[in-house]
Write a structure and sequence with these properties.
The structure holds three protein chains of three kinds.
Chain A: H1 5-10, E1 19-30, E2 33-44, E3 49-52, H2 59-66, E4 74-79, E5 82-84, H3 89-94, E6 97-100, H4 112-117, H5 129-143, H6 158-171, E7 176-180, H7 188-201, E8 207-212, H8 216-222, E9 225-230, E10 233-239, H9 245-253, E11 271-281, E12 287-297, E13 301-305, H10 312-320, E14 327-332, E15 335-336, H11 342-347, E16 350-353, H12 357-361, H13 368-372, E17 383-384, E18 387-388, H14 390-403, H15 420-432, E19 438-442, H16 450-465, E20 469-474, H17 477-483, E21 486-491, E22 494-495, E23 499-500, H18 506-513
Parallel strand pairs in A: 3-8, 3-9, 6-7, 7-8, 13-20, 13-21, 16-19, 19-20
Antiparallel strand pairs in A: 1-2, 1-4, 4-5, 9-10, 11-12, 11-14, 14-15, 17-18, 21-22, 21-23
Chain B: H1 2-27, H2 35-53, H3 56-80, H4 85-104, E1 109-110, H5 124-142, H6 144-154, H7 156-161, H8 166-192, E2 195-196, H9 204-214, H10 219-237, H11 249-268, H12 270-279
Antiparallel strand pairs in B: 1-2
Chain C: E1 2-3, E2 6-12, H1 18-42, H2 47-60, H3 64-87, H4 95-112, H5 125-154, H6 158-177, E3 203-204, E4 207-208, H7 210-227, H8 229-239, H9 241-246, H10 251-276, H11 287-293, H12 296-303, H13 311-331, H14 338-358, E5 359-365
Antiparallel strand pairs in C: 1-2, 2-5, 3-4
The chains are: A alpha/beta, B mainly alpha, C mainly alpha.
């Protein structure tokens, strides 16, 4: 295997239980935020050491540092007792660190074996696949993998693709395997297989570090130790045998609450949105939304709580008209809109805040006026016989800029010069100014600072008081809990439950988001 | 009739060479719509040099060299400067078209040299072409260089993370592509039709481009496709061989283009698109920006 | 890169003002002209003399100016035809074929009126000319529609499609006007029948009335993009198909529409040159040359960054260069194809200058030596 000389020296004679990698005082700062602060972390040979933390807790940064994609501002990393520095992933790979990314880093069109040997020092000149095949098959047998080496990657299931990446890292001589959200894209059955493999892989020489956001049952099932991150710091270190999911969840999510927006009490009206058994297929061709049903009333905020990738995006897109439903019905104010076009939905009173602000919600090179026009160009009031009334649009934009306190020199400024917060305000403003009866708000405060966030939430409250029904999709649990009248935790495309506001608290919802069914006392194998 | 077949084979070889170059280009993710321009330069400069120095060898060498240079230029514009690949390609084509019309004009007329000796009735380039096709196929599918090229064209970020040099690979392919394009142009004007005229190629470069799409980026299918096209082309020049009296000869000249168009439409239909989409280098035409 | 005490750095642009863009475009043109003057130098002629001849003939002489203006009209149509799909993010390089079809359409109307048989036929001018113009637009639009439909529905590469159509159209014209074709001139000669004088387009001092048409189209286009709902939709799609989709703007509709419009305008270019320019009034033997000239439309469109009004002075300049170049070519005995060479030099310069539209050069005082980075 591709062992480099250095690696041999560093990790020679490692035995089970010895420290393979030690990180001390790792600190990394980005403009405006300290992503990692004074993190101490060690990994021992033969162990499975899980790292837990919410979005934004600093997991990804730490992981990227360990893999050489980022350099820490402070702190050091030692391997085998010697200080090492990774200037690039190649350095890390040479020293025996392998990474399996959350989003596949494989060439779909190539075969498994081609992906594994890509960039491998041993695959030079004319490819002698026979020998490589033999070595790989031996590797597979050792760890219990069952993969057709000549299959094309695009034909494989998510679980199999992951195995390929694991094999690639192992074949390159990895002694430390970092897994980024290993089961996030897997079905429960595949997850079971993966876990079995991981357990089998943690042999004498190999150490495995899965980085996990949720799926607490998995952490408990396979890991030997757990490190919990929150707010860039280590908040807990456990031996897995000494811990329960409840205590893990508490350490992950913490008790901090920044502020609570007053949840306005509004008399709710008739249902404005009815969704029956809605299903949708994701871009990857997998059924991402599996038949959800719910209704939203006028004046109600219906919140969907979940970790990204569990089907909420497909749900929002199916309701907004950006994705064809695979099954089920959507009814807006009594009219069926399952097959209606985007404009038809908008004309019936739907407003949509897109989840991808920069790609979908804004045209960077357009002026602010032109961006506002995205929600108005079809409006008869603003258009006379095909000619847009730019004076009116401009006046509207100026009103929006002042009302929403958007920091922009003029309505003619190009949108791309605005900050994320101001752009989101613009999107919100142009959508809300149409006084929609149903508002689909996807990730409305993502990436915004506290001021902008509070502003957005207040505006949502105003819309609610204006009798709009709001579908709120957010990855910020606090936000969903404080704003919503009812909460539906979503997990793997299904609603775990639909909870009335009073019953929805952090622990219950957090657990459901992570896959624990209601009324579960212990984690059950799903 | 045998004359017809021979000419068809010769024509198809020119398509093959140009299309092969573009195939290698595209496999690494670079789209060059200006093949016609490269071919024009290769044919014109090759013609001029050969005639002036009375040396075929020099003519071909110059043709190949100018092609390689143009390929390098395209690479420079699109990879390093980040200019839109389509704009850069069109630039090369229009520049080629414009400049060669001017440069070549004084040399309008026959080459006036003894024909290159043929082997079994076919020019040596026919055999060279076939060899090149086989070599390309072999390199692309069986060597690590081929794997490197293909990976760079499918997903440059994965390639980069795996330690491959994306930029260098792309430059290499675009230069080879240019060289082959220049060669094919030189073969055209020095052997196939040794008479220089305004716009000698008349669209062959674009047919070659379509051929690459049609071949699903497989050199062997490319060869088959260009044999078909070569025959089609010869047919359009001599319709009396197959369907005497039917349709004016001008209409016949449109047939190769019309068929190419139909082929393009076919490969865009759903049935084809799945397979074609699978074969298409994922990153084709997209600039790769290393942060 | 250091020059003296300053350091040059390349930086990606965030914004490009109209002034900056104009300056870069002008710089590109000047650079190209300077490069082009190599041709004069190689022939032993002073570039300054050559250029003076070109410009004075093209713009200041009573013979050259009408020629320049007629050429300008032709180029302006072609540029407009390129610009519409360009703003939608699509490439129309099929102006050549579209203008050929336009010419065929116009001459088809004449044929229907029996103009082929007799030149002295007295045709109702007020009826025939609008019909010819309409037919030209429709024919050009139809050809464009093919590319637009294929692109919108099946995402076929519009560059290859339009180029193939160009060649098909070229040979179709040949078929129509040569040996036995329906439009053939009774006298043979490999060109089409001539226009009866009653169908001549009105002209003022040698410049065809189509100048108003061309200018009108350019102004209309400017208005289209600046103020109308349709123009907005086209621009949005060109900037970000994803955002356009979010806003309910359909890809198929836009693709088809811009190519139909572009094709129609290119068709008008065909009507203009072959039926409205004094001294021509037929589909001439060298019709291919005009097909080639259409590519200047691409360059003009790129230099004017898709602004239909900015295209006007650019097309005028190129019209003049083309005509003046022809004169100088003959007068100073340079080889045929100078305007082709100029086309080539311009294009390659433009491609290189694309870089400057996206990046700016920043001067910064170099840091003192010895200071840690």
């Amino acid at each position: 295997m591709g062992n480099s000389h250095m690696q041999k020296q560093l990790l020679e004679g490692i035995q089970r239980g010895d420290a393979v990698l030690e990180a001390r005082g790792i600190t990394k700062r980005f403009p405006g935020v300290v992503a990692n602060e004074g993190i101490d972390f060690d990994i021992r040979a033969g162990e499975i050491h899980a790292v837990l933390g919410e979005n934004g807790a600093g997991k990804t940064t730490l992981m990227n540092i360990l893999f050489g994609l980022l350099q820490p501002d402070e702190g050091e990393i030692r391997m085998g007792g010697q200080r090492v520095e990774f200037k690039s992933p190649l350095d890390a790979i040479d020293l025996g660190i392998g990474m399996v990314h959350q989003h596949r880093k494989l060439v779909s069109a190539h075969s498994v074996i081609e992906n594994i040997i890509l960039g491998h020092p041993r695959a030079r000149g004319i490819l002698n696949l026979k020998q490589i095949e033999e070595e790989l098959e031996e590797l597979c047998a050792r760890y219990g993998f069952n993969i057709d080496l000549h299959a094309k990657v695009w034909q494989l299931s998510e679980g199999e693709k992951q195995v390929v990446e694991i094999l690639k890292a192992l074949y390159r001589g990895a002694k430390l395997l970092i897994l980024d959200e290993p089961s996030s894209a897997l079905t429960p059955v595949e997850t079971k297989k993966l876990l079995a493999s991981i357990t089998a892989m943690a042999t004498d020489e190999l150490a495995i570090v899965p980085f996990i956001t949720h799926k607490l049952p998995i952490v408990l099932a396979i890991s030997d130790r757990v490190t919990v991150l929150r707010g860039g710091k280590v908040t807990a270190r456990f031996n897995t045998s000494h811990v329960t999911e409840k205590s893990l969840a508490r350490r992950m999510v913490g008790r901090d609450v920044i502020f609570r927006t007053e949840r306005a009490d509004v008399e709710q009206g008739a249902p404005i949105l009815e969704v029956e058994d809605l299903s949708a297929i994701s871009d990857k061709g997998v059924l991402a939304l599996k038949g959800v049903s719910f209704a939203i009333r006028e004046g109600e905020i219906f919140g969907i709580a979940g970790i990204s990738g569990n089907g909420q995006r497909e749900l929002a897109e199916a309701i907004a008209g950006l994705r064809t439903a695979a099954g089920g019905r959507v009814i807006l104010g009594g009219t069926e809109i399952t097959r209606a076009s985007v404009l038809e939905r908008w004309n019936l009173g739907m407003g949509c805040i897109p989840c991808e602000r920069l790609d979908m919600g804004i045209i960077g090179d357009f002026s602010l006026v032109d961006n506002v026009a995205m929600n108005y160009y079809f409006d008869e009031d603003f258009c006379e016989r095909g000619v847009l009334d730019y004076a009116k649009l401009r006046a509207l934009t100026e009103r929006i800029i002042s009302q929403f306190d958007i920091a922009a020199p003029s309505p003619d400024t190009k949108a791309k010069t605005l900050s994320g917060g101001n752009l989101q305000k613009l999107i919100l403003a142009r959508v809300l100014s149409r006084r929609p009866r149903l508002l689909v708000a996807s990730l409305p405060t993502q990436g915004l600072d506290i001021g902008a966030t509070e502003f957005v939430r207040n505006k949502l409250m105003e819309a609610k008081k204006d009798k709009a029904g709001i579908l709120l999709i957010s990855e910020d649990l606090d936000e969903v809990l404080s704003l919503s009248d009812r909460v539906a935790p979503i997990y793997e495309g299904e609603f775990m439950s639909i909870l009335p506001g009073e019953k929805a608290n952090r622990e219950v919802v957090g657990a459901m988001m992570a896959g624990l069914r209601p009324e579960d006392g212990h984690n059950e194998d799903r | 009739m045998s004359e017809f077949i021979i000419r068809s084979l010769e024509a198809s070889m020119i398509f093959t060479l140009a299309a092969l170059g573009e195939l290698i280009d595209q496999r690494s993710g670079i789209l060059n719509v200006g093949i016609e321009g490269v071919m024009l330069f290769g044919s014109t400069l090759g013609f001029i040099v050969a005639q002036s120095t009375e040396s075929y060898l020099l003519g071909f060498l110059v043709g190949i060299a100018i092609g390689g240079l143009l390929g390098l230029l395209h690479g420079f514009f699109s990879v390093t400067l980040g200019v839109d690949q389509v704009v850069s390609g069109m630039g090369i084509w229009i520049a080629g078209f414009g400049l060669t019309t001017y440069i070549g004009n004084p040399y309008t007329g026959p080459l006036g040299m003894e024909r290159i000796p043929t082997i079994l009735g076919l020019s040596p380039f026919f055999y060279i072409g076939i060899v090149l096709v086989v070599i390309s196929w072999f390199v692309l599918s069986r060597t690590s260089l081929g794997l490197q090229i293909r990976s760079v064209g499918e997903d440059p970020s994965v390639a980069q993370v795996s330690g491959l040099k994306v930029t260098k690979t792309r430059y290499l392919c675009v230069t080879i592509g240019g060289m082959l394009g220049g060669l094919s142009g030189a073969v055209y004007s020095l052997f196939y039709n040794p008479v220089w005229n305004y716009n000698p190629l008349m669209g062959w470069g674009f047919v070659a481009l379509a051929l690459v799409f049609f071949s699903m980026w497989n050199p062997l299918i490319l060869l088959v496709g260009s044999l078909l096209f070569g025959t089609l082309w010869q047919l359009s020049l001599n319709p009396q061989l197959v369907l005497p009296g039917v349709l004016s000869r001008y209409i016949w000249r449109t047939i190769p283009f019309a068929i190419t168009l139909i082929v393009l439409i076919l490969i865009s239909t759903k049935w084809f698109r799945l397979r074609w989409g699978a074969a298409k280098p994922e990153a084709l035409g997209e600039p790769y920006i290393t942060e | 890169m250091r020059i003296g005490r300053y350091r040059l750095r390349l930086e990606k642009r965030l914004t490009l003002t109209g002034v900056e863009a104009t300056l870069i475009s002008i710089l590109a043109i000047v650079f190209a002209l300077a490069l082009f003057s190599l041709i004069f130098v190689l022939a032993g002629i002073s570039p300054l003399v050559a250029y003076r001849e070109i410009f004075s003939y093209a713009f200041a002489s009573p013979y050259g100016l009408p020629l320049t203006l007629n050429r300008f009209i032709f180029l302006l149509f072609c540029t407009s035809a390129f610009i519409i799909p360009f703003r939608a993010g699509l490439w129309n390089i099929g102006m050549t074929g579209q203008l050929f079809f336009g010419a065929l359409g116009a001459f088809g109307v004449l044929l229907a009126f029996g103009a082929k048989g007799s030149r002295s036929l007295d045709l109702p001018t007020g009826l025939v000319i609008p019909l010819m113009i309409g037919a030209a637009a429709v024919a050009g639009g139809m050809l464009g529609a093919i590319a637009g439909l294929l692109k919108g529905r099946m995402n076929t590469n519009e560059i290859v499609v339009t180029m193939l159509l160009n060649f098909i159209a070229y040979w179709l014209v040949a078929h129509m006007i040569k040996e036995g074709g329906p439009f053939m001139n009774p006298g043979g000669r490999g060109e089409s029948f001539e226009l009866p004088p009653s169908a001549y387009a009105p002209s003022i001092m040698g410049v065809s009335f189509t100048i108003f048409l061309a200018l009108g189209v350019a102004v209309l286009l400017y208005f289209l993009f600046a103020r109308t709902r349709l123009g907005y939709q086209i621009k949005a799609h060109g900037q970000s198909p994803a955002a356009a989709q979010y806003a309910g703007i359909g890809t198929v509709r836009i693709s088809l529409l811009v190519f139909v419009l572009g094709g129609a305008i290119a068709g008008l270019a065909g009507y203009h040159y072959f039926a409205a320019v004094p001294g021509v009034y037929k589909i001439s033997r060298n019709y291919g040359y005009f097909g080639d000239l259409a590519f200047y439309g691409i360059i003009s469109g790129l230099i004017s960054l898709g602004n239909p009004l900015a295209a006007i002075p650019v097309a005028l300049l190129f019209g003049g260069l083309s005509i003046g170049g022809r004169l100088v070519q003959g007068k100073m005995q340079l080889g045929f194809g100078m305007d082709y060479a100029l086309l080539g030099v311009l294009m390659i310069t433009l491609v290189a200058f694309q870089f400057f539209y996206r990046h700016r050069i920043v001067w910064a005082k170099a840091r003192e030596r010895g200071r840690k980075r």
